[in-house]
């Protein structure tokens, strides 16, 4: 195998046209350059350079190897530039785990901020429930994860992870316009429980409804199930039931629905978790997620 360091010397000699000029470019002595070329010729088993009055020129074999040497030199230069960009958080991919309402609210705001400050960064996002997210960042499969701690932070094993609390997400009640519970102020859970419920099987809504059913006297009756928030709101607007909606989606009155607080008010912490990777790129993304998350959660 040809020594890649000697290939870099050959590349410099062929470009410069002389041993002396190549030595100046590389910061070597002319003798060191001559020795490197001689060693490379021994490895190649043939002469690579011919001397002439003004310096050296490559042989046919030298031209062949010099072409490969130029590729090596280019890749080495690119590696250095990429490493510099990575150190300045100017490039690289950061893998993020998230839950649906955070993906729809926190991530876009963070991505916009990163696009302005670090346009070379790329985000790879996967939807994960809390347990999956914790394990993926612990195993190094994700660099950062946003977690809805639906049963409190103490319910998750966060040992060895860096934890940043972003705030609390409030889960609200969505009613059709003109519903009997459509009035000022929060809606009592016991009153809402008597209604037919449309359950969005999103983790936040499903876990919150399960917690409501087990924590108190309210026993909500699920009459329909959906897999996305748009379908849920459409069914509520049609008067087919009431539903929960995550606060991070910023639900507002309109399109046939009204949004009300519940009493007691279901809420859960939102956490940003990081593993052992503390590169400048991960740090930059963590900062953007923290700022966007706290702004979205009103902290």
TrEMBL record:
Domain HTH lysR-type: 2-59
Name of the protein this chain belongs to: HTH lysR-type domain-containing protein
Alphabetized UniProt keyword annotations: DNA-binding, Transcription, Transcription regulation
The family this protein is said to belong to: Belongs to the LysR transcriptional regulatory family.
Lineage: Bacteria, Bacillati, Actinomycetota, Actinomycetes, Pseudonocardiales
Transcription recorded as keyword: yes
Assigned GO CC terms: protein-DNA complex
InterPro entries (alphabetical): LysR_HTH_N, LysR_subst-bd, WH-like_DNA-bd_sf, WH_DNA-bd_sf
MF GO annotations: DNA binding; DNA-binding transcription factor activity
């Amino acid at each position: 195998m040809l020594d890649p360091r000697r290939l870099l010397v050959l590349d410099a000699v062929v470009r410069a046209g002389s041993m002396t000029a190549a030595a100046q470019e590389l910061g070597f002595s002319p003798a060191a350059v001559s020795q490197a070329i001689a060693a490379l010729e021994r490895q190649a088993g043939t002469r690579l350079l011919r001397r002439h009055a003004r310096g050296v020129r490559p042989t046919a074999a030298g031209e062949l190897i010099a072409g490969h040497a130029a590729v090596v030199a280019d890749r080495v230069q690119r590696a250095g530039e990429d490493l510099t960009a990575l150190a300045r958080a100017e490039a690289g991919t950061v893998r993020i785990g998230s839950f649906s309402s955070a993906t729809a609210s926190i991530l876009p705001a963070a991505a916009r901020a990163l696009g302005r400050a670090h346009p070379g960064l790329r985000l790879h996002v996967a939807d994960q429930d809390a347990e999956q997210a914790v394990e993926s960042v612990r195993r190094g499969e994700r660099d950062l994860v946003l977690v809805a701690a639906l049963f409190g932070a103490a319910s998750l094993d966060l040992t060895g992870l860096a934890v940043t609390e972003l705030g609390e997400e409030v889960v609200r009640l969505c009613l059709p316009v003109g519903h009997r519970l459509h009035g000022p102020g929060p809606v009592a859970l016991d009153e809402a429980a008597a209604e037919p419920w449309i359950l969005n099987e999103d983790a936040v809504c499903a876990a919150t409804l399960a917690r409501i059913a087990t924590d108190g006297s309210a026993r909500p009756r699920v009459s329909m199930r959906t897999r996305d928030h748009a379908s849920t709101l459409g069914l509520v607007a049609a008067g087919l039931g009431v539903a929960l909606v995550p606060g991070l989606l910023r639900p507002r009155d309109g399109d046939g629905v009204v949004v009300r607080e519940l009493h007691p008010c279901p809420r859960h912490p939102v956490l940003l978790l990081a593993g052992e990777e503390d590169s400048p790129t991960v740090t930059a993304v963590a900062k953007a997620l923290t700022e966007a998350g706290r702004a979205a959660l009103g902290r």
